[in-house]
Structures are given as structure tokens and as C-alpha cells.
Write a structure and sequence with these properties.
globular; single chain
């Protein structure tokens, strides 16, 4: 069973996508399940994990409503205000939804680089563990040392690092990112998503440009902790669904059994599908 473990839906009229402006021409329209179905069928993909794209409970509820009526959506990674006074009850209530599998604060957009280590967030991380919800870590390379500290404090928290922490492939910055990702792989049980890499690369991105980064991830996390995702429709800024799927197969020279883990089995395990 192939699972796309990272994709998005949005509807512009909802109005809470503050980052999504008309300047992002390929993305500035509605993207809903009916727009994805042909891509899934083209690659025999059984289902997806849809991930939040707006910092609002309303968007999480919107995604859950889509999931309720669409069998191809296997899970939803939503959002809550981790600093809210009633965050524990909010998480417990949301966790009752059948397809809510995780939560994702938009750490990459938060100015305070140390935000994730604030004491006020600890109740949220504890309740996520209690409710068997996965933490999607939307981080940048500058956050990786803090992420290691956080995961050391919460070793029971199932964590997935989104987009391999968005290495700066465009500028070929690899050494510090590689060292920190290897530490996370060695010292925590975190998973890592093979997703979002083409949008971090040059405009004429090739497999050769991506290969050193994917090789490091494969060596560090191994086939049992890597998870494939499309990052559609953000992917459209640099590529298309089918090309990224095919490129991913070429970038991951593994056995059929290991490919089954990266392209489905690990997502099923990480998100408790």
C-alpha cells in the first residue's frame, strides 16, 4: 500500500492562509480532493495524510470534514495553539476525531528560534503523547539543535521531521545540516520525511543535485524511518506530482521490501493508521 504522507488542501475563500498570496501564482487557487485524485490513480497511491496549511482550529476542522467524506484521506495532521490556556482540553477533544493523527505548530514561521523549548508548551506535548498523536516538526536547519533537546525531553513523543528540515540545497549547504540530522537519527526515534526537497533546490533541479541530501538521510535514518511525501500542491512551485514520485524512486536505491516501508509502511506505523 503506497501512502503519500504529506500533502495539503486549501480553499481560498476560507481566508486563513496568510502566507498564500497572489504572487504564488501556481498555488493561488483552490486545491481539493477532486484535484488530487488523478495523480493518486496515476501512481496507484492508496491514500494520503493531509497536513495543515493554516494556523487555525477552523482549518483543522475543515480538513477533518474533507477526510470524513473521502476514503483516500487516511489521516489529518492539524493545528492547535500550543500556548493556549485550554490546550490540553482542545487536544483531547480534537483527538476524538477518527482521522486526526497528528498536530503541527508552524515552527518555521515563528520568529523566536527557541519557541519550541518554552515551558508553556510542555503540557501540549505531554497530552499529544497521551492521545497517541504524532508531532510533525516543521523546522529549518537553524532549529535542529533545539529539536534534539525537545525530543530528548519527550522521548515517548512520536515525531516526524517534515521535509528533512528544509536543507538549503540551492546554496549547497550540507555539512552542518548533515551533522545535526545524523544526531537526531542516532539519539532519537524520530522519523524523517523525504518531501519538499525540490522546492529547496535550484529552479533547474536535477536528481544529481538532490542525491547527496537523500543519501545522507538514507544512511542516517535507514529505510525503516524514512517516509515519502509529495508536498503537493506546494510541489508545483518546482515540479509536478508524477515527476517527483518517479524521481524519488530513482533517489532511493533500496530493496522492494525497503521501498514498501518508505512509501507506505513507515507512514502507517508513524501515524497509527
Amino acid at each position: 500500500m503506497i501512502i503519500d504522507a504529506h500533502q495539503h488542501f486549501w480553499q481560498l475563500c476560507r481566508g486563513d492562509y496568510t502566507w498564500l498570496t497572489s504572487e504564488l501564482t501556481p498555488l493561488y487557487r483552490d486545491f481539493l480532493p477532486e484535484h488530487l485524485i488523478d495523480h493518486l490513480d496515476n501512481k496507484s497511491i492508496a491514500g494520503t495524510i493531509v497536513v495543515q496549511a493554516a494556523p487555525s482550529i477552523a482549518e483543522t476542522e475543515f480538513l477533518l470534514s474533507l477526510a470524513k467524506n473521502n476514503k483516500r484521506i487516511k489521516g489529518v495532521v492539524g493545528w492547535v495553539d500550543f500556548e493556549s490556556i485550554d490546550v490540553k482540553s482542545t487536544i483531547r477533544e480534537l483527538s476524538m476525531a477518527e482521522k486526526l493523527v497528528g498536530l503541527r505548530p508552524m515552527i518555521q514561521d515563528i520568529e523566536d528560534i527557541d519557541w519550541m523549548l518554552k515551558d508553556t508548551l510542555k503540557p501540549a506535548f505531554r497530552v499529544m503523547s497521551e492521545c497517541n498523536l504524532t508531532f510533525d516538526a516543521l523546522v529549518l536547519p537553524k532549529h535542529l539543535t533545539n529539536l534534539l533537546t525537545l525530543l530528548t525531553q519527550f522521548p515517548e513523543l512520536t515525531t516526524v521531521i517534515d521535509h528533512a528540515a528544509k536543507p538549503n540545497i540551492k546554496k549547497a549547504e550540507i555539512l552542518e545540516w548533515s551533522d545535526n540530522m545524523r544526531r537526531l537519527a542516532n539519539e532519537t526515534s524520530a522519523y524523517c520525511k523525504i518531501s519538499g526537497l525540490v522546492t529547496e533546490a535550484s529552479s533547474d533541479c536535477s536528481i544529481e543535485e538532490l542525491k547527496p541530501y537523500v543519501d545522507i538521510l538514507l544512511d542516517a535514518f535507514g529505510p525503516s524511518r524514512l517516509i515519502w511525501g509529495s508536498d503537493w500542491p506546494v510541489l508545483l512551485l518546482a515540479s509536478n506530482y508524477e515527476d517527483w514520485f518517479d524521481a524519488s524512486l530513482n533517489l532511493l536505491p533500496v530493496s522492494a521490501e525497503e521501498r514498501g516501508l518508505i512509501f507506505g509502511g513507515n507512514a502507517i506505523r508513524a501515524y497509527g493508521l
